[in-house]
TrEMBL record:
GO molecular function: hydrolase activity
Coiled coil: none
This protein's record includes keyword Transcription regulation: no
Family: Belongs to the 4-hydroxybenzoyl-CoA thioesterase family.
Gene3D superfamilies reported in the protein's UniProt record: Hotdog Thioesterase
Name used for this protein in its record: Acyl-CoA thioester hydrolase
Keyword field: Hydrolase
InterPro entries xref list: 4-hydroxybenzoyl-CoA_TE, HotDog_dom_sf, YbgC/YbaW
Length: 138
């Protein structure tokens, strides 16, 4: 899955409040973990949502595909691995793996964001500096 040098790993200790009645992390919390990893990936690349928004660029989610392989339980320590799938166009696509402390895959995800003009809410090309930074990863 991870095909380039852009992989970022974020370690997370799920909180009790994120579990369901069975002590399993509720599936909705996976989206929060993905976002946390994506923010760190952007930060390591030298960008942030705030920097994009200052340039009137929004990045709404277009599509999420999550495959749940093994439940995350309260007490597990997980790592979220995020990688850029390919060079961005008007869309940027990320691959994720969430693994537990035993390096067992708990979920796989592909998430697509769309570069969007903040004023017109229309798709646009990525910020040139962002695209150049991404090119260096491949």
């Amino acid at each position: 899955m991870i095909k380039n040098s852009s992989t970022t790993v974020v370690k997370i200790v799920p909180r009790y409040s994120e579990t369901d009645q069975m002590g399993i992390i509720h599936h909705a919390n996976y989206l929060i973990y993905l976002e946390q990893a994506r923010l760190e990936w952007l930060n390591q690349l030298g960008f942030s949502y705030a920097k994009m928004e200052q340039n009137d660029v929004l990045l709404p989610v277009h599509q999420i595909d999550i495959k749940y392989k093994k439940p995350i339980k309260f007490g597990d320590e997980i790592s979220v691995r995020i990688s850029l799938k390919k060079l961005p166009t008007t869309r940027v696509i990320f691959d994720y793996e969430i693994v537990n402390q035993n390096d067992e895959i708990c979920s796989l995800c592909e998430l697509t964001l769309v570069f969007t003009d903040a004023q017109k809410f229309r798709p646009i090309k990525p910020i040139p500096d962002f695209l150049e930074a991404c090119k260096k990863l491949f």
